[in-house]
Amino acid sequence: MDYSRMVRAAAVQISPVLFSRDGTTEKVLQAIASAAKEGAQLVVFPETFVPYYPYFSFVQPPVLMGKEHMRLYEEAVEIPGAVTDAVSRAARSYEIVVVLGVNERDRGSIYNTQLIFDADGSLLLKRRKITPTYHERMVWGQGDGAGLTVQDTAVGKVGALACWEHYNPLARFALMAQHEQIHCAQFPGSMVGQIFADQIEVTIRHHALEAGCFVVNATGWLSPEQVGQITADETLQKVLSGGCHTAIISPEGTHLCPPITEGEGMAIADLDFSLITKRKRMMDCVGHYARPDLLQLRLNPSQWAVMSSLQNESTQQSAATPPLNIPQPEFLTLEP
């Protein structure tokens, strides 16, 4: 791995075009162009930005949110499809790595999905949030271990998690064990207030320190007019504010540029990969600081399927089972 390179990254704090997949996608394309003009080689967007984060589920009880849930189905992103085609073309045109959050529709289900496009436009990763949080469980299905992979991109080894997945330490460790160099984090923003913004900052700075990697974090933002579109209840409107902290963090846990906490904007910073070695020289939690003889992570990287062949399962199991007398020293064990 090259630890002597320099990469310019951009984290975008941006508001969606509510209720419009096409309108929000157009804002994504414009932001990619703007980031490229600033010399960015990597651009990160907020959680489920296309078409929009399901804020309605945070302020409406399930019995009342059927209409908005159906509208989200109608505007959700199919993969592959027009949205991924457009973003792929933009990534290729500007030679920029793009990390985008979408509401993915897979027939009768919606998922919180993170997409990583390489600088040649190829879609390297489509991963689904492994456990939707609280109100989100009424909207999204669950992901699987197939998405807990770090991708080799034009800017280095890139991994991604969404929102409170960062409170699953084993999910984070799975990416660390694959020697993640740039971690792309995504949060919804415009929720809960300042306490959420404070928690985001603590979370992303801690991951940077523990993983010895850069963290590029993007949160969404709602204008006061958009909050009014989501709910007319002034009491509920108060919980759809704050909670924004778009930032870029070094492996030493420091901000590389001023964070964006309100309004639309773009955080841009240069990532000096030598700082990864500088941090890991002191504490490499998947190297000299690890104790695989005491503690190991067992990861199932299989993609879920509601139907599979018993014959295929038997073949896969026999191929994947190691001899009983051979020790397994790795601290990341893959279980098919």
TrEMBL record:
Residues 308-336 are annotated as: Disordered. Residues 308-320 have a biased composition (Polar residues). Coiled coil: none annotated. Pfam families: CN_hydrolase. Residues 7-273 form the CN hydrolase domain. It comes from the Bacteria. InterPro entries: C-N_Hydrolase, C-N_Hydrolase_sf, Nitrilase, Nitrilase/CN_hydratase_CS, Nitrilases_CHs. Belongs to the carbon-nitrogen hydrolase superfamily. Nitrilase family. NCBIfam families: nitrile_sll0784. This is Nit6803 family nitriliase. The lineage of its organism: Bacteria, Bacillati, Cyanobacteriota, Cyanophyceae, Leptolyngbyales.
